[in-house]
Write a structure and sequence with these properties.
The protein is of the alpha/beta class and 421 residues long. It is 37% helix and 13% strand. Strands 2-10-9-8-7-3-4 form a seven-stranded mixed β-sheet, with helices on both faces. A four-stranded antiparallel β-sheet has the order 11-12-15-14, covered by helices on one side. A two-stranded parallel sheet has the order 1-13.
Amino acid sequence: MTTKTGPARPAAEERDAADPLRTLRDAFVHHEPEIYFDGNSLGRLPTATAGFLEHTVREGWGAGLVRSWDTWITWNRRLGDRLAAHVLGARPGEVVLSDGTSVNLYKLAAAALDARPRRRTILADADDFPTNRYLLQGLAEQRRLRLVPLRSDPVHGLDPDELRRAVDDDTALVVLSLVSYRSGALLDMAAVNEAARRAGALVLWDLSHAAGVVPVELASTGADLAVGATYKYLNGGPGSPAFLYVRGDLQQRLRQPVWGWYGQRDQFAMRELYEPAGDVDRFLVGTPPLLSLAALEPALDVIERTTIARLRAKSMRLTAYAAELAQEWLSPYGFRLASPDDPARRGSHLALAHPDAARISRALRVRQRVVCDFRPPDRLRIGLAPLYTRFTDVHDGLDRLRTLLESRGHEDLPAETPRVT
């Protein structure tokens, strides 16, 4: 299929020409000739965002001042309902935008543990994102609970049988990521929910690497709780507020630990004692960072121009193509695929393992203008966001990586890794 002078790029161009989502790329800001493979960390800037934020600043803040809160006060819920309908497979009134992913995970985990006071065990993926593990370590220590790390394959992720063996009548909470941040391995949400439900445990999902690229059906799978970032595949901008989901019938049974005025019933009554709102608003805390919240409006406008099913179909084609090129072009230089082989078993990023992946990642950025990232111990992560990534981007990016390896252009970089990788 591929040599440097062969027909590989025209074939990629043909795939782009046949892509039904190709025009969505124009809804984002690009800086040619840079190739961007890091949408799984920070999504691109939608072209409409700057203008929308300027309008919000000039008209909402500048002209409207405090009067604009008559509209702004509903944005947590209104944007949450949009996510629920188009991205998360949830019902109206089950999703809100609030705080960051870590804070939301803490709030919902604490509320879930309080709802199972006689149970003493928390189950979590041993290879989950560090913040999730740290938060659970803290909760377990504070409450004198038992945190059980479930063994997880570094490529294929958690084995569902491992969970089924571990969950029992002492399990209060199971915390898992739908898509592994390191390898991209994808779990079966329905199967996990069913296994936990049989044991009477609650499940809290982190959807940060799934929302916007993987079909999520929170309602139909009977999911209990979920959180997720909006700055990755949802393109809400750096530090944009996260979302949280609480199934409707659980909302009044759970009380989160951070009691703030945004979660108070009839918040402007300014009552002396805290009484949580009767719906999902009880999981809010304080006044939202409105400008960061506003950036989600144009971002959702773009994603609502298509469907998650179509984004998923393109995502699988992109990762399959990247894996094929990596096998042919990069394996002679010591790279191997560190994600599941089957595109249906992974999210929208690939992990490629190499002993010198950290230096290769840095050299790609500074010498080949290909932006991806590194995750320990030896993973080069390539995030392929289907809203704006082309097949020719995949071809050209991996061709530049091959050129770098041929020239050994990474070997003179210092071995020390920078703070941001």
